[in-house]
Prior knowledge:
The complex is a heterodimer of chains A (384) and B (571).
Chain A lengths: L14 H7 L4 H14 L7 H9 L5 E6 L5 H7 L6 H8 L1 E4 L8 H14 L4 E6 L2 E2 L8 E2 L2 E2 H10 L1 E7 H6 L12 E2 L10 E4 L6 H14 L12 H4 L3 H4 L3 H5 L10 H4 L18 H4 L23 H4 L15 H13 L6 H14 L23
Parallel strand pairs in A: 1-2, 1-3, 3-7, 7-9
Antiparallel strand pairs in A: 4-8, 5-6
Helix pairs in contact in A: 2-3, 4-9, 16-17
Chain B lengths: L3 E5 L9 E8 L2 E9 L5 H5 L7 H6 L8 H14 L5 H27 L14 H11 L7 H16 L20 H21 L1 H7 L26 H30 L15 E3 L2 E3 L9 E3 L2 E3 L15 E4 L5 E2 L16 E2 L22 E4 L8 H10 L3 H14 L9 H31 L19 E10 L2 E10 L2 E8 L1 H5 L11 H6 L12 H9 L4 H4 L17
Antiparallel strand pairs in B: 1-2, 2-3, 4-7, 5-6, 8-11, 9-10, 12-13, 13-14
Helix pairs in contact in B: 4-7, 4-9, 4-12, 5-6, 5-7, 7-9, 9-12, 10-11, 10-12, 11-12, 12-15
Amino acid sequence: MFSPNSHPWSADETLGRHLEKRGVSRREFLEFCGGLCAMLGLGSSFVPRMAHALQSMKRPSVIWLQLQECTGCVESVIRTSEPTIGNLVLDLISLDYQHTLMAAAGHQAEAALQSSMKENAGKYLLVVTGSVPLAENGIYLTIGGRTAKTILEEAAAGAAGVVAVGACAHWGSVQAARPNPTGAVGVGDIVKDKPVVNIAGCPPISDVVTATIVHYLTMGRMPATDAEGRPTFAYGARIHDQCSRRANFDAGQFVTSFDDEAARNGWCLYRVGCKGPSTFSPCPIFQWNSGTSWPIGAGHPCIGCTERQFWDTMTPFYDRLPDVAGFGVERTADLIGAALAAGATAGVAAHAAATAIHQARRRPLPVVDAPVRSDPPAPPAAKE
Amino acid sequence: MAATKVVVDPITRIEGHLRIEAQAENGRISNAWASSTQFRGIEIIMQGRDPRDAWAFTQRICGVCTVVHAVASCRAVEDALGIEIPANANLIRNLVHGMQTIQDHVIHFYHLHALDWVDVVSALSADPAGTARIARSISPWPNNSETYFAEVQSRVKRFVSGGQLGIFANGYWGHPAYKLPPEVNLLAVAHYLEALDWQRDVIRLHTIFGGKNPHPNFLVGGMACAINIERAATINAERLEDVHGMIRRAQRFVEEVYWPDLVAIAGFYKEWAAIGGGVSNHLAVGEYPEADVRDSGRLYFPRGIILGNDLTQVHPYDHMKVKEYITSSWYEYAGGDGVGLHPYEGETKPRYTGPPAPWEYLQGLDKYTWMKAPRYDGRPMQVGPLSRMLVAYASGHADVQALVTEVLGKLGVGPEALFSTLGRTAARGMETLLLARRMNVWYDQLVARIRGGDTATFNRTKWDPSTWPAQADGYGYLDAPRGALGHWVQIRDGTISRYQCVVPSTWNCSPRDAEGQMGPYEAALVDNHPLVRPEQPLEILRTIHSFDPCMACGVHVLDATGAPIVEVTVQ
């Protein structure tokens, strides 16, 4: 149940002073920082630095643009468990513009956006859900009579950092699936002059969104990312390598038809189309909705929704990824890779397998202990 | 006095992108236009795909009503291929869709609609003891103490005094249309915050059966979540008990918080029972199959049509009478702007004719929206909780009749009060209450079946495309939180050749048709509708929000013209 807090964080006090008033002890606070560091993949040596950064922080302004989207990413963030959305909005950030939740509409809403951009120029965090349609001069999405592209460019100009939440903001997602009728692109295709962190997924797990925001606020920079701009603390490993059904894969225990004996034993879904071997995502570790379950845990194959172009590259969803079953994908990939390197002629199927797997493996390895410099804040890892 | 031009864009606290334009004269609205300003083209994207994948694509039409397109899509494909799903799968889908509706309606009331009726700033001057007294008089909910409300008030006070108003900035606080006493405002603000936590818990039902929310997973032919009470990685007793707990907590919150709050707040706004009625035809396709989905006589909420607000007669529904018009929409038909087309022969070619952005006004233009205009037998139709409750009431549904009678009695109004802005908001609450109770029945049935040894969740006989006919057409209906939904699919040689959806918000947000008939949003805004301060359009928000708009759902496109599909190059 919601526990009311009689000491909300006011604009003029630091978080340290605020927590003190709320009766949070130094020890409890350091424990919280320790947990956060662990989640973000930072070593324990960063705890004091995080504590220092957090303590001297003021309620930051966040502007959230919703563009060409289904609002699923907003719904996902509303499900976030720690901090809860109530605490996030009332205590942790100043959410100055967010269509789904804000009281004002029309001119008053747009006035709130303009005044926040002006007052917090260069300091606010810009969160974007949804893609930007470029076809036909952008008329496939307008807000207040202005195109999504115009609105995004204006908001990005004064932002300290940009977080693209969800597959649509990342690369366009479902509306960018072939033939992409509206010319939808991701935020990173428009905003080129500053780093864009991509929280991949359709939708992403809410805790990854909030953890990224907290990382930015505490570290003074975005988390380390892979070539897709995805934070490595969340997207550094394949589903297949973290899957609770991996042992069944290695043992050759496969579901061959939904609801068969193997499915009723909770075995591996690879043969009914699981895209876990080609998908980098924290689903098996973070799980969904307060750790309740996750797609494979509920018996459905992974559809690969954290990967660019998954609507075209991962479909048909129930077709298995090309592979020689029984030895594990890495081994297959290594064998085929070696064969190709030796100049041997590979068959079409083997080539397809190599391509799919190479694609999955070409991302950099996870950065377990991200380097943090005291001054000046380093820019986020550059995109490829 | 000349009419004042009013523009509200963006309409916030909805799903998606909606623009309302109006003309106001002497405190009333004299004309109105509803424009959808987003287009995504998902139905073009469906062409050539595997029909078993369609649920996942169409699910992404909307992440708020995140299960409805997926289930309607599965039903359409199952209809086309002649697949009957196991009884367990039907019960699980009912539980998933039922919880979706309950959660969606509660979120709508507190987080999307309440700020139209509740003045947050006024809550600051409330006497918490008075709020506690009121709360205890209407509900046994445990968080009804003076201390509790005092803490909520103090939290909001400090938030406001800090100067960073966040989502509450620039609200219409102090507007004369706000009528609640400060104590009731405080009650609603407290429950606004409680509901945020509640929804996060109960929606986990989707995670258990579908792996995540938003966008849980579904499966043509049933559900992918295998049942085995002897295993840890399947639906077992532990998972079922978790589900049971969520159903109980959902029911309790609805009975002890949402419903009493709704009735109490409605009591202060009875004049809204004579405002914003609009279109008097209602369509319910019916929902919650208690047997095979094709048996339209065995739905918990019945199917039917009400014409001219006449509750003495329920007309039968025939999906072949649905046609879509584009007279006022940015599309073109080969047969011209005056014709209507059934989804099976529908064609859509986007053709923008509006002004280049940025623009100031769309009113007065012949075409002004991305929304098409669906009509039933030529008539505009309202869809949604009110339409469902009216059809059920007129059909003699005992639970609905009893509840409607009780509510009308409590508020001291007659049945005509239902045809209004307040009626739509009240009907949403009634439906939530009935569903929250019905969930127990479906849960008990599921458990009884498992206890009896039936654990089947999937029918695999038509899974393999080699078993499919060369040509198959299917219709999938579903009465979603926001109203009647239809998916039409045509499968040719194993892939989708045509796909179309006619969606609740397409019905309700439809523009003028070839006959000049307004859609439900527009008609409601000119039906005895006040607008005291055109520069603070609070009353417009009340009526538009009473429909619970879902714009991403409403705009879609089918390309039946055979336009070439361009291959993307994947890096």
